[in-house]
Amino acid sequence: MELFPSGKNHSDNKTVPKLILPLFLTVVVLAAFPLYYTFNRAPTVHELDLFLSTSPDGGTGPEPSRNSKAAAPAAEIARRCDISTGDWVPDPTAAPSYSNETCWEIQETQNCKKFGQPDNGYLRWRWKPDGCELPVFDPVEFLELVRGKALAFVGDSIARNHMQSLVCLLSRITYPSDISNTDNRRSLVYRDYDFNITLFWSPYLVKTGVTYSESNKDNPFDLYLDEFDESWTTKIKDFDYLIINAGHWFFRPTRFYLEGKLVGCLYSWDPNVTQLTSGFSYRRALKTAFRAVKSNFKGVAFLRTFTPQHYENGPWDSGGECARTEPLRRNDSAALAQFKFDVYDIQREEFGVAEEEGRRNSDGVVRLRLFDVTQAMLLRPDGHPNRYGHPQNPNITYHNDCIHWCLPGPIDTWGDFFMELLKREVIDPR
Fold first, then answer.
1. How far apart are CA 211 and CA 206, in angstroms?
2. Which of 352, 353, 375, 355 shows the shortest CA–CA distance to 364?
3. Class of domain 87-427
4. Where do the Trichome birefringence-like C-terminal domain residues begin and end (predicted)?
5. How does strand 195-201 pair with strand 150-155?
6. Where are the alpha helices (DSSP H) in 41-101?
7. Which of 84, 157, 231, 268 is catalytic?
8. Identified catalytic residue from 97, 384, 404, 412
9. Which listed residue (87, 229, 401, 416) is catalytic?
10. For the segment 22-68, what is each residue's pLDDT rounded down to a tens digit?
């Protein structure tokens, strides 16, 4: 039997004890086992919780270098934990961190408690991702994460709803100064933290030819689907973080232009114009928005995904309502069958295309991230204003609101999402 590299058979050498090989192998195995276990075992639930519930410096020791071996496990855990899939679990001890009396940023139409919402049950739920925990928003830690930074929201009234939720979550610690000079661009500054928040109104994300108003609300909008909306695309170079959303406005009457030429329409009664779909315009608007981001932005850009409406018993203008008092369960196929995911599917597809193009062609200055809240909010028909977004006057007919979100309400969980995503950027900004 050959044991040595010389090729000489030493099996008959009486000076070598016959037990040396088994002993040698035993020592090697015993020595190697702790190393194998350390680098190949799955992280424990405690370790997942520890990572996801602490800041990068964590209070548990010095922050490892991105190039050190110690940094890899935390980054890997973050990538494996998908906070977008999960379920809502009851949390009887949960309480909102603000109220309609402590946060002045709440819009009247989302001020559900002011207008008589009698139930607090919709505030007693917590989002539980599959396989990990999502820490509750910490305003102190958040403000330290964004110290010296600038954040822009771009989109429709859901973007405004989101911004107002964030401001209210931060109101436990401090209030911003409002330095806005136009309703189409809200600007807030937290001077103690040198942190700025700006909201750009752009419900279609692209150049729009008709300004919406009460007098022409039924007229089609002219969408120039391959042209930038310069009200925001020329300003984003000054920001570190960008959150983009759009979707609900794409179901309104619109005319579509490409290269300056009319190519189709949606809900327009001109027989000489080709009838197209909302998916046609939405996909092209997203492509143009991503092109603008890659051209003019050098930070982290988040595409926040679509949140569906929850009208039941009719559409919004014919008595539709959202009167449920508890979240849906994700295995409730009957209740979920009514929802369509065309917008969400387009978002994921176009995000994937833009991300891959950026990976191939970018110099790394733009990072695209998916801010995926669709499943979480799909399950919350109980979180809308419904009939509590306006005064309770029996002599006036109001339409119920099953699109926007009560403040406080389930939308505040987006603060948990956003803070976790920002922490991951600090740990592993790839």
1. 13
2. 355
3. alpha beta
4. 134-420
5. parallel
6. 45-52, 71-80
7. 157
8. 404
9. 401
10. 444 343 333 333 333 332 333 333 332 332 333 333 333 333 332 33
